[in-house]
Each structure stands twice: as structure tokens, then as C-alpha cells.
Amino acid sequence: xxxxxxxxxxxxxxxxxxxxxxxxxxxxxxxxxxxxxxxxxxxxxxxxxxxxxxxxxxxxxxxxxxxxxxxxxxxxxxxxxxxxxxxxxxxxxxxxxxxxxxxxxxxxxxxxxxxxxxxxxxxxxxxxxxxxxxxxxxxxxxxxxxxxxxxxxxxxxxxxxxxxxxxxxxxxxxxxxxxxxxxxxxxxxxxxxxxxxxxxxxxxxxxxxxxxxxxx
Length: 216
Fold this sequence. Notes:
216 residues, alpha+beta, 4-stranded antiparallel β-sheet, 7 helices, 63% helix
């Protein structure tokens, strides 16, 4: 959780207190208090209010379970990233990630285990992407990854690493967990996020069908 609200609130109150203190010294020749207890109280209160602001901002942008970004944040952030890609003439990958048979996992092992799996998968996605990439819980057992400045090789590398880590997760949790992932590319496959997600979904289900036919 960022400290922006706390730092700004404390900085504002501290600056105000210093101005008041300087004015009093200039006017009366001495500070109003040797130990500025009212000022300390004011700074503590500013920190408290700033913390409330930071918490509210965090949960307005994040999913409450996984602490990944939510849809609201993505809808605000992605158009800006698209414009940046246009200026630089670069491409961007849009991944749709789906947990296979998640309802069966919930029904078999319970929702608490299901929630743990979603948290672990969130960590897998974070560990296999860069800080500049954006990962969101798109809804239920579906995730979205936005990867700027990427190419086909980079996207395939992410898919391979994520699936390998999820295999290890299955062994650790003793639950059969697997992912399906579909990808689209901005601006080659479209210039609107909604359309890119549809293409990623389509590509994901085509891969699922192909994988199912291979195992028949």
C-alpha cells in the first residue's frame, strides 16, 4: 500500500506548523512551546487521516482477495498505456488467464482452498512478469495481464514460465491446478481493450480445444 496520502498530509501540516512557529518567534522572540506537543499531536492526526486516504485509494484500485488490480483501475490506466505505445510505435500483449475446472476445485476442496489457489496464482503471475506489467483479477477465476514493450517471443516465455510454476503449485498444494492462457497484440489485433480481450478469449478457447483433441 502506497504512503502517498500519509506523506502529503504530514508534509502539509509540518510546513504549516513551521510557518506558524517562525511567525511566533519573529513576533515574540521565542517559540510558543519548547516541546511542541500540539504540533506532534497534529502530525499524528495528519498521519492517521493520510493512512485512511491511502487505504481507501488502495481498495478502490485493487481486488480485495488477491490485491491485484481490479477492472476499475484497468479501465482508467490502459487507454494511457495505449497512447504511450502509439507514440513509441511499440506493441503490447494482452493475456487472458483462466483457471481450468475452478468450480470443480471449489466443489471438491472447498472455497477456502479455492481462495488460496487464486492467491498463489496471483503470486505466480507477479513473479513471472516485470514491474512495469499490469496484472488484474478480471473476475472469478480469470486474470488479465497487460505487457507493454513485448514481442511474440517475450509472450511465449511468460506463458511457459507461468505454466511451469503452476505445475509446481499443484504438487505443493496436492490439487490438480492448471491454467489456460490466450494472447492478443495491440495494435495488430485491435485498438480497443474490449476487442483485444475477446480475441485473447477466442485464442485461449482454441488452444483448449486443440489440447483436448490431442488427449483423446
